Amino acid sequence: MKRIAFVPAAVAVVAAIFFLGPLVATFDFSLRMVRGDLTLEAYRSVLSSEVFLGALAFSSAASLAAIVLGALLVVPTAYWVRLKLPRLRSLVEFVSLMPLIIPPVVLVFGFIRVYGSSSVLPLTTSEVGINLLLVIGYVTLSLPYMFRAVDNGLGVIDIVSLTEAAESLGASKLRTIATVIFPNVRSAIVSGAFLTFSISLGEFVITSLLNRPGFGPYMVRVGQDQAYQPAALAIMAFAFTWVCMALMEFFATQRPGTLKVPIRFPKFMRRNVT
């Protein structure tokens, strides 16, 4: 039994060395910007750059927009499929996995082709249109993860009973989704949101080909021109990703449908309750 227990521990140690070794070496290299001394000068240089702050702010805003748009798209779709169209669930799951099969470069060239200057809807001719295409691209890339998170959350709660109760009190389908379904899958949406944010923040292909000042293209440009700052950026991006993963794990441990605070039912659901 001791030998059997020793093998998993040895594998874990080897795996930790394999994955943490390059990270430690990168962190050590990022501290050697000043010759002969270990300093945080590379991090200070990155954080004091206006270009870095602008790229981070732009990508963060686009990622947050992608989270909102993705939630508004996925939650009603997954809810309706589970409630009314269960036979189409396998088809919808297959469609949601398509972004894992189609390369992002194909996706962005499709955007340019369909929404170019000669199309009926020329989104590529304006800054607002290009930013909208970027957000749609982020939503598409994160669709497999957002859909899985929301669909698992809907599988835990009894959406049929909740829908019947809301409709018996006079709620429309739209109001049921907004005031009943969304609050009960909040933790699932948050889990999908963190994955969406992590994917969108460092995305390079779509952001670069659409010529947007995002964080991904900024990291590539810094890596071409400087030595120590890219290492600092890599450590910062890695730390940020792990923070998102930790937050995702925290929210994922809460069962979808259970909330820390009691839910107050809307007035239209209380007016007939005696």
From TrEMBL:
It comes from Fulvimarina uroteuthidis. The chain crosses the membrane at residues 6-31, 51-74, 94-116, 128-147, 188-210, 231-252. It comes from the Bacteria. Residues 52-248 form the ABC transmembrane type-1 domain. PROSITE patterns: ABC_TM1. PANTHER family: INNER MEMBRANE ABC TRANSPORTER PERMEASE PROTEIN YDCV. CDD domains: TM_PBP2. This is ABC transporter permease subunit. Pfam families: BPD_transp_1.
